[in-house]
Structures are given as C-alpha cells and as structure tokens.
Amino acid sequence: MNQQPVHPAPAAPVAAPGMPLRVFILDDHEVVRRGVRDLLEAEEDIEVVGEAGDARQALARVPAIRPQVAVLDVRLGGTDGPDGDHEGIEVCRELRARVPDLACLMLTSFDDDEALFDAIMAGAAGYVLKQIDGTALVHAIRTVAAGQSMLDPRTATRVMERLRDPGRAQATEAETSELGRLSPREREVLDLIGEGLTNRQIADRLFLSEKTVKNRVSAILSKLGVGRRVQAAMVVERLKGPRA
C-alpha cells in the first residue's frame, strides 16, 4: 500500500482490572461498522474507541488511539466479490509492525483459504466469518484480547488439511535453517505448540515453570521470525511432511 515506514508505536496496553476492553473497527460498509459497534457497546466491559472505512484512516488512527483489539474487514475499497482484494490483511501486517501487542481479528464474508493463510502469516490473532452470531463475535474478541488465537470452527479443519497437503508440506530451506537455531528444549516446546498445548500444559508436560515456558515460547517466535503461536504451529505442520 506504499505506506511510508514509521517507527513502531508503544505497545498496546493491557486492560487493567475493571477497565473496558478497547476495540477499533475497520470496515468499508457503514452499516456493518454500525452493527458491530452497537453489538459491542451493549457489553459493559467493551468500549469501541474508534472506527474507519478505509486503510488510510485505520493506519492513521489506530497507533494514536492504541486499542487492544482491531476488528478488520479482509476486503476493502468496495471490492465485494470472493476474488476481491485482501487490503485488510495488509492493514493487519502494517498495524502489527507499528503496534506489536495489538490483537487483530479478521472479519470476512467469504470462506477463502488464501486469505486465511495470508492473515495468519500477517500476524492476525483470529479469523472469523461475518455469518458468525453476535455472542460468538464478542467471545472471539475477548479471546484474542487475552492473547489466544481464534479461528472460526468451520475453517480450522481446512487449515490443518491445507498444511498437510503434499504441495505445501515440505519445509522450505529457510524454515529448516531457522529451526536449526533452536535448542533441543526449544524444539520440544515447539512440537507441543504444534499439538495445540497451552503454556500451562507445556509446563506440566516438561516439568517446567509456566514463566520458563513463556520465555521459551517468546524466544522460539523470535528465532522463527513469527509473531503468533499459530504461525509457529504452521511451521511444525509443514515440517511433518505429507501424512500417510
């Protein structure tokens, strides 16, 4: 999107106990923005702190407002068809570079594998369809705000199947090189991340403290050059190769 490089903004703050969860909405349809805003503002613990109808507005406002969650439409600019642009994913990528602790939840009308994978690799914490009901959307926002990953149940199975496809299963030379930088213990932790275990479950499995696991996970993400656990899990799946 030819945006000028900027220095990252301060990390998005974590909501203090008793303080509302701060959410920003990006969608090029005013009716959708209004509907999501009304839904969220009905929740006592959520505050909509801003909204935008295009990428330029979002990139200007989010670093200044510093929400904890940004709900981003995948397709912007009035391109409504299933083959439309994925500009919202580029917004996610740019916002994550500027505000690393921001949790981005992608919202889309179309069940699109390519957009799903692109969103995950751009650092999105979640990806849900607009057909989702209100209660589930609120739950998804709270989930990503808590630092967890959120995929629409209808897409999660296909994600794993796509990763196991022989055409994508072979590890790239870059991934192999990056994995070579991990210690044996970090490889163990990475394998358990690939199994979907939480930090607490990994700590129990390896007889480590939860703080130690958290530090190792951070080191793993840094060495692999990814920002989310789900991205690390994708690396694990590709390295496993095709299934029998």
TrEMBL record:
Residues 22-145 form the Response regulatory domain. It holds the Pfam family GerE. It comes from Streptomyces chattanoogensis. This is LuxR family transcriptional regulator. PANTHER family: TRANSCRIPTIONAL REGULATORY PROTEIN NARL-RELATED, TWO-COMPONENT RESPONSE REGULATOR. Signal peptide: none annotated. The keyword DNA-binding applies. GO terms for molecular function: DNA binding. Residues 175-240 form the HTH luxR-type domain. InterPro entries: CheY-like_superfamily, NreC/VraR/RcsB-like_REC, Sig_transdc_resp-reg_receiver, Tscrpt_reg_LuxR_C, WalR-like. The modification 4-aspartylphosphate is found at residue 73. Keywords: DNA-binding, Phosphoprotein, Transcription, Transcription regulation. GO terms for biological process: phosphorelay signal transduction system; regulation of DNA-templated transcription.
